[in-house]
Each structure stands twice: as structure tokens, then as C-alpha cells.
Amino acid sequence: MSGKKAHGKRAKTRSLMKRNVRAKTTVNEVLKPVEIGGTYQININSSKHQGLPHKRMQGKTGKLVSFQGKAPVMEIYDGNLKKKVITERVHLKPIKQIPKVKKVKK
């Protein structure tokens, strides 16, 4: 049995889901408003197990497409493949969109 490898959902996530000792999840983080069409980054909050996205989605950025009940549905590109991720609001971090500036040739 010593040669068996763990294949669970949270395998190899020791450093990925590590949080500061004093970092608390507040009610405001759980109930924060999110808007359809907004850009968000998936930032896994390991203290909330409900609606926890897969570890592969950590750090991915995408647009909020719709809601499934109260849970937001994100549209994310994994390479060239478009995927939908259903997660809780606690695991989303809003991203500011910086407008692209065209370079003018002199």
C-alpha cells in the first residue's frame, strides 16, 4: 500500500490552497456583488468548501456569463477550449479591464 498515489480532487494542493493563519473569510466576501459580463479571476478560498472549483482552475481569468441559482457561471479558456465553471462568489476576485492602446507610428 505504500506505493499507491493519491488521485483525489485535492491531491497536490498543499501549497495551492494554503492560507494565512489570520486570514478570515468575512460575510462581505461571501455576499459580495458580482455582475454579468464582468471579468473575474478564480482565486480558491480553501476555508469555504462549497462551490470549490477544481484545482486546475486556480488563477484562471474569465467572464461571468450567467447564474445557476445563486452560483455564478464563468466562461474560461483552457488553451483554445472554452469551458464553463460553476463556483461560489467567495472564490472570485474582480479584475480591472485595462483598455488596449494602439501604438501610433511616427
Can you walk through the features of this model?
By secondary structure, this protein is mainly beta. The chain has a domain of 68 residues: Roll (SH3 type barrels), CATH 2.30.30. It is 4% helix and 27% strand. A five-stranded antiparallel sheet has the order 4-3-2-1-5, with no helix packed on it. The longest helix has 4 residues.
Radius of gyration: 17 Å
Mean pLDDT: 90
Number of strands: 5
Strand content: 25-35%
CATH fold naming of the domain at 27-94: SH3 type barrels
Given the C-alpha coordinates, what overall shape results? Answer: globular
Query: Any guess at the CATH architecture of the domain at 27-94?
Result: Roll
Structural class: mainly beta
Low-confidence stretches: none
Enumerate the strands of the largest sheet in spatial order, edge to edge or round the barrel: 4-3-2-1-5
SSE run: HEEEEE
> In DSSP terms, counting alpha (H) and pi (I) runs of 4 or more, how many helices?
1
Top-tier CATH class of the domain at 27-94: Mainly Beta
Distance between the termini: 69 Å
- Helical proportion, percent range: under 10%
CATH superfamily of the domain at 27-94: Ribosomal protein L21
Question: Helices and strands in order, then pairings?
Answer:
Blueprint: H1 27-30, E1 39-42, E2 61-68, E3 71-78, E4 81-86, E5 92-94
Antiparallel strand pairs: 1-2, 1-5, 2-3, 3-4
